[in-house]
Amino acid sequence: MKVAILAGGVGSRLSEETTVKPKPMVEIGGMPILWHIMKLYSEFDYNDFVVALGYKGKCIKKYFFDYCSLESNLTVQLSEGTVVRHKNNAPNWNVELIDTGISTLTGGRIKRLQPYIGNERFMLTWGDGVSDVNFDRLLDFHRSHGKLATVTAVRPTARFGHMKFDGDAVSEFSEKPQAAEGWINGAFFVLEPEIFDYIEGDETQWEKEPMERLARDGELMAYRHEGFWQCMDTLRDKNYLETMWQKGDAPWNTWEKSKIATAAR
C-alpha cells in the first residue's frame, strides 16, 4: 500500500525556517520532519511513498537524491570522477517525488497523485505532523467499516496550563495537557480510490468540499487516537518537538523503542 504525503505548502506561520526551505524539510533532531513521518510508516512496513511537492520542492528532491551518499561511507576518486559507497545505512524506501504546483490546494495535490497511486487503497498524511498512531490498528479499523475514508481524530495538546477549581482554590493544575474535550482532524488517513471522484481540481481544498461531502454521504469514519499527536505549524511547535527529541522523550520515536524492546529480549 502506498503512502501519500502532502509536502507542497508554503508554511508561512513558520517563516523563520521556511524562507529558505519547505516546511517538511525543517529539522527535528538533525533530520527533516518529513523523514520522521516516513520513519513512522516504515516501522509498520509501509515503505512505498508518493510525495506531493510544491513550494521549494527542489530542496526535497535534492535531499533524497543525496540521501544514499550522505548516509554511507564514501570513496571518491577525484581524477576519474567515481564514487563508491560503503555500508549504506539508507532505509528500504521507494520514494516518488511529484511536482503538484506551487499554488495547488490540498485536494488538488491529492488529485494530481492519482496516476501514481492507481486504483488502490492508500494512506495519506501531511508533511508536518508526528504521532504514535498504530497504523496496523488504523488499517484494521478502516477495513472493518467498509467506507471510503478514515480520518484519524486526535485531541490536541493545550497551549496553556489547565486549571480546575474548588471555589477560588486551584484544586488541579496541568501544564499543557492533552485536551480533555474536542476531537480534530489529525490527518493520517486511509482512503479508497473512489475519493478521487470527490475532488474537482487544483482549487479544491481537501478539508472543505471533499471531506464535507464524504461525511454527508456517510462515507467518512473517524479512528479515535488517544495517544500523542503534534503538528508543526509555528516556531513554538518546532521548538516543542525539538525539546522532546533532545530529552529522549519523543513519543513518536517508535523505532528507537522497538530497538530497545528487541535488545531486551
Automatic annotation (TrEMBL):
It holds the Pfam family NTP_transferase. One of its GO terms (molecular function) is glucose-1-phosphate cytidylyltransferase activity. Residues 4-212 form the Nucleotidyl transferase domain. This is Glucose-1-phosphate cytidylyltransferase. Its EC number is 2.7.7.33. Keywords: Nucleotidyltransferase, Transferase. One of its GO terms (biological process) is O antigen biosynthetic process. InterPro entries: G1P_cyt_trans (IPR046981), G1P_cyt_trans-like (IPR013446), NTP_transferase_dom (IPR005835), Nucleotide-diphossugar_trans (IPR029044). It comes from Pelagicoccus mobilis. NCBIfam families: G1P_cyt_trans.
